[in-house]
Amino acid sequence: MITPAKSSSHSSHIDVAIAIVFDAAHERVLICLRKLDTVLAGYWEFPGGKCDPGEPPVACAVREIREEVGIVILPTHMLTPIEHEYPYARVRLHPFVCEHVGGTVQHLAVADAKWLPPDHVLNYRFPEANLRLMQLVGAGFAALIAEAAPLV
């Protein structure tokens, strides 16, 4: 499922953890709207963010979700990393399938957040690097898990 990076003019990449957060029944997924003062402003995304130096991506996903929307998640599966080059940076996305285990969504570092049926994500504008993730999520929880490796 890896998406090859386009030819790169950037010497290094930015590691970004992504949490694909499902509710307990696996019927809804969380998406967030990026704030207007951020890169890719106005795009929807699966929440997450840049990994700190030396921070494992799975720990980053948990931290970023707590900081962005104030909920507690449990990462259960890992998808293959996706590399993508934007004009301003080369990114390596580390997507994790997660379960919402506590808290109520707040808009701490996002413009908006919604719980949607998985197939509805295809109706929203996401960053280009998220296309494959959108397709997998849109196919439903079972299809997404079939592409993922369980976290031990």
Question: Helices and strands: which structural class?
Answer: alpha+beta
Name given to the CATH homologous superfamily:
Nucleoside Triphosphate Pyrophosphohydrolase
Name the beta content range. 25-35%
CATH architecture: Alpha-Beta Complex
Q: What's the tally of helices? A: 3
Q: How would a textbook summarize the main sheet?
A: 6 strands, mixed
Number of domains: 1
H-E order: EEEEHEEEEHHE
Cα distance, first to last residue?
Answer: 20 Å
The fold-level CATH name is Nucleoside Triphosphate Pyrophosphohydrolase
Gross geometry: globular
> What's the mean pLDDT score?
90
CATH class term: Alpha Beta
| Overall number of strands | 9
Q: Portion of residues in helices?
A: 10-25%
Low-confidence segments, given as residue ranges, are 1-10
- The quaternary structure here is single chain
Radius of gyration: 14 Å
Describe it for me?
The chain is an alpha+beta fold and about 150 residues long. The chain has one domain (about 20-150): Nucleoside Triphosphate Pyrophosphohydrolase. The protein has helices at about 55-70, 130-140, 140-145, and strands at about 15-20, 30-35, 45, 50, 70-80, 80-85, 90-100, 110-115, 150. The strands form 2 sheets. Strands 1, 4, 5, 6, 7 and 9 form a 6-stranded mixed β-sheet that branches. The protein is globular, with a radius of gyration of 14 Å. The model is unreliable at about 1-10 (pLDDT under 50).
